């Protein structure tokens, strides 16, 4: 869960840090055009995240297993997020913007499943916050590493082709992690603690 969330955040931090620079430097957007068209992926992501979460909850209430629903949402979302690697290859800016909207929306859908996992696997409600905090602690290392890696690669190559390819592959690695390494999504078993009776 920690490694998978790290992979998700690695891609999301592109949107948080380098997305405006990409549209301005690589696609020639003016600041006015950036302000208008640059909002499209974020707006699509909000709608997709809400819809994905709603449909996932509905599927679970309809009798689908939590494991199947969570893995479908997370793996599918990360695979969808990997299309970010093609944004630097298409010839037209509108194509790149469409791919970025698909990627960001897919990542947001995956995020709804990832943030549900702590409650799904917690042995009790008292453990949800701790598990969520540990998962989030690992994921936010991506916020430190990703901007440095992207900036270094852009400086070294002079374009966003390689950086977007790298984070697209990271999204696929995250999908593989959740599909193969994450087991059944169910409450963890915790050994019952025994206490020595007090002598007083």
Please outline the helices and strands.
Blueprint: H1 2-17, H2 19-26, H3 31-37, H4 39-61, H5 66-81, H6 93-121, H7 128-139, H8 141-157, H9 161-181
Care to describe what's here?
With 200 residues, this protein is mainly α. It has helices spanning 2-17, 19-26, 31-37, 39-61, 66-81, 93-121, 128-139, 141-157, 161-181.
- By CATH, the superfamily comes out as MFS general substrate transporter like domains
User: Separation of termini?
Assistant: 44 Å
Envelope shape: globular
Number of strands: 0
The CATH architecture assignment turns out to be Up-down Bundle
* CATH fold-level name: Growth Hormone, Chain: A
Largest sheet: none
The helix count comes to 9
Task: Sum up the structure in keywords.
9 helices; mainly alpha; 200 residues; Growth Hormone, Chain: A
Write a brief structural summary.
With 200 residues, the chain is mainly α. Helices cover 74% and strands 0% of the residues. It starts with a helix and ends in a 19-residue tail after the last helix.
């Amino acid at each position: 869960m920690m490694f998978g969330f790290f992979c998700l955040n690695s891609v999301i931090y592109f949107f948080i840090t380098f997305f405006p620079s990409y549209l301005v430097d690589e696609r020639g957007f003016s600041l006015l055009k950036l302000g208008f068209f640059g909002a499209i992926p974020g707006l699509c992501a909000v709608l997709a995240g809400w819809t994905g979460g709603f449909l996932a909850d509905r599927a679970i209430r309809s009798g689908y297993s939590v494991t199947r629903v969570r893995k479908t949402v997370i793996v599918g979302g990360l695979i969808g997020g990997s299309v970010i690697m093609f944004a630097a290859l298409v010839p037209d800016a509108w194509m790149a913007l469409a791919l970025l909207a698909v990627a960001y929306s897919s990542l947001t859908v995956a995020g709804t499943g990832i943030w549900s996992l702590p409650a799904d696997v917690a042995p009790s409600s008292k453990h949800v916050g701790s598990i969520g905090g540990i998962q989030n602690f690992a994921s936010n290392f991506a916020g430190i590493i990703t901007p440095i890696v992207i900036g270094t690669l852009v400086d070294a190559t002079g374009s966003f082709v390689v950086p977007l390819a790298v984070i697209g592959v990271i999204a696929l690695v995250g999908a593989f992690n959740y599909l193969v390494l994450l087991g059944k999504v169910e409450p963890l078993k915790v050994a019952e603690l025994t206490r020595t009776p007090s002598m007083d």
